[in-house]
Amino acid sequence: MDELPGSLGTSASLALRFGQTIFSTASLLFMCLDVEFYSYTAFCYLVTVMGLVVPWSMTLMIVDVYSVFFRYLPRRPRITTIIILGDLALSYLSLAAACSTASTTYLLVHLGRSYCPAKLCTRYQLSAAMAFLSWFLSLGSSLFNLWLLPSL
Amino acid sequence: MDELPGSLGTSASLALRFGQTIFSTASLLFMCLDVEFYSYTAFCYLVTVMGLVVPWSMTLMIVDVYSVFFRYLPRRPRITTIIILGDLALSYLSLAAACSTASTTYLLVHLGRSYCPAKLCTRYQLSAAMAFLSWFLSLGSSLFNLWLLPSL
Questions:
Q1: Where is the Casparian strip membrane protein domain (chains A, B) (predicted)?
Q2: From the CA of B47, how many Å to the nearest CA of chain A?
C-alpha cells in the first residue's frame, strides 16, 4: 500500500501538487494583473481563495520534492488527516470561487461590451478556467490521500 | 460502531435526509414557480442539479424511515461506498449551482431594478440560500458515512 500513486510523498502526488501550484498561480495572476477586480465580490473571493491555495499547494509540493528526491518521509495518520481535510476544504472553496467567477463573467459578457471590455473578459474567463483546473487537481490529491488513510 | 449517529439507517441520518429533501425542494420551487429562469444559464443549472438532488435524498430518506421505524437494515460496504460517492458528487454539484446562482443574483441586484424586479430577486436569493443549506446537509451525510466506511 505504500506504493499507492498519488498519496503524499510519491511522484504522482508531486505532479498533482505542481499542477495545482501552476494553475492557482495563473488564476491569481490573470485576475490580479488588472486592477478592476475590486468591483465584483466574486472576483475578490477568487483572489482570496487562490491566495490560500497557492501557499498550501506550494508547501506540499516542497514536501513531495524532498520526499521523492532526497529522503523518503514516513507517513503519519494525523498529518495525513490534516492534509486530507485541508485539501477537501480548499477544493470546496476553490470550486465555489471558480463557479462564482465563471457565472459573473458569463453574465458580464452577455450584458455587452460596456460592462466588460473584450480584453478584460478574456482574462476573467481564463482565470475561472484555471481555478476549475486547480479545483480538479486538488480533488484528485484529496481522494488519493483519503484512499490511503484506512491502511495507516 | 454500528451506533455512529449520522450514518445510513440512523435517526440522525433521517434528520439530515429530511432537511436535504425540504431545502432542495424549496430551492427548486422558488426557482421554478416563475417562468423566467430560462434566461440565465446559472439558474437552469440550479434547476437541473436540484432535480437530481430531490429524488436522491428522497430515496435515501425512505430507506432511513424503513430502517428506523420498521426493520434495521444491515450495512454493506459496496452500497455505502456508492452512497458516499453519490453524496460527494451531488454536494459538489449543488455547491457549484448555489454559488453560480448567488453570484448571478448578486450581480443582477447591483445592476438595478430593470434587470431584476424586487419580487423575482428575492426569490432567486431564497433559492440560492436553500441550495446552500442543502449542500451543507449533503456534505454532512457524506462525511458521516465516510467516517463509518473503514469499520465495515
A1: 8-137
A2: 15
Q: Which of A39, A84, A103 to mutate to test the interface with B (most CBs of B within 10 A)?
A: A103
Say whether pTM exceeds 0.80.
yes
ipTM over 0.90: no
- The residue range of the domain holding A39 is 11-151
Which tens digits make up the pLDDT trace of B34-69?
767 677 888 888 889 999 999 999 999 998 888 888
B103 and A106 within 8 Å at the Cβ level: the answer is no
Residues contacting residue B17 through CB under 8 Å, at least 6 positions apart: B57, B60, B61, B64, B141
* A2 found inside a domain: no
Residue B3 placed within a domain: no
Does B109 touch chain A if contact means CB atoms closer than 8 Å? no
Does residue A3 form part of some domain? no
